[in-house]
Write a structure and sequence with these properties.
alpha/beta; Rossmann fold; 5-stranded parallel β-sheet; globular
C-alpha cells in the first residue's frame, strides 16, 4: 500500500491546508498526537493519526441520519466549512453561539433532539458539550494541541484554527459520510468543490 492510498487525501493536500500545524501550547492529553515541535515552538501533529481519526469520525457520523446529528462551531473560522457541510449532507449546524439548554430543555423554542454532537473546538463550544453530557449524547471534537479532552468521546487532532484546515477536514467528512450512507458511490462521484468549504 503506498502512502497515497493510505490517506483519505494525498499527503500534500493535508500539508498545504496546514491541518498538522498545532499551537505552542500542548496539553498532556494531546501530546500522544504530536509528532514534533518546530524550532519556532509550534507543535506539529502526526498526519497518520489525523487521518486515522478523520476516518473514525466519518465512520461514527455515518451511523446516524443527518437529522440526528448537530455540528457546532462558535469560532468564525469554521463557519464556511460547516455551512458547506450542511448544504451537502443535510446535517444541522450551529455557526456561532450555541445557547445552553437547546438539547436539554424542551421548554425552549429552539429545543432540538440529537443523537450525536460534533464540535469544532471544545473550549468555545463547551456549552453544547455540557448539554450532550447531561443527555448522554456522544461527542466528537476537533482538538488542537492546546485542547483538553474532558467529556469527549472521539478526539480528532487537527489545526482547528485555520480556515483551510477546517475546509479540507469538513470536505473529507462530507465525502466519506455520503459514501458510507450510499449517497455517492466513489470519491469521483463526490462533486463538491473544495472551494465551497474553504477560504483562499
Amino acid at each position: 500500500m503506498t502512502e497515497l492510498e493510505q490517506f483519505l487525501v494525498p499527503q500534500d493536500s493535508y500539508l498545504k491546508a496546514g491541518i498538522h500545524i498545532g499551537t505552542k501550547f500542548r496539553t498532556k492529553y494531546m501530546s500522544q498526537f504530536i509528532y514534533k515541535t518546530r524550532p519556532d515552538g509550534l507543535s506539529v501533529l502526526n498526519l497518520q493519526k489525523i487521518d486515522e481519526r478523520i476516518r473514525l469520525a466519518a465512520n461514527f457520523l455515518s451511523k446516524y441520519k443527518p437529522e440526528d446529528i448537530i455540528i457546532v462551531g462558535k469560532r468564525e473560522n469554521s463557519w464556511k466549512a460547516i455551512k458547506a457541510f450542511n448544504r451537502y449532507t443535510g446535517i444541522r449546524i450551529f455557526a456561532g453561539r450555541y445557547l445552553p439548554g437547546i438539547l436539554t430543555n424542551p421548554a425552549l423554542d429552539r429545543y432540538i433532539e440529537a443523537k450525536l454532537v460534533m464540535v469544532t473546538d471544545p473550549w468555545p463550544d463547551r456549552n453544547v458539550i455540557d448539554d450532550a453530557m447531561i443527555r448522554g449524547i456522544p461527542v466528537i471534537a476537533l482538538c488542537d494541541t492546546n485542547n483538553q479532552a474532558n467529556n469527549i468521546d472521539l478526539v480528532v487532532p487537527c489545526n482547528n484554527k485555520g480556515k483551510k484546515s477546517m475546509g479540507l477536514l469538513f470536505w473529507i467528512l462530507a465525502r466519506e459520510y455520503l459514501k458510507s450512507r450510499g449517497e455517492v458511490k466513489s470519491d469521483e462521484d463526490f462533486k463538491a468543490p473544495l472551494e465551497d468549504f474553504t477560504e483562499e
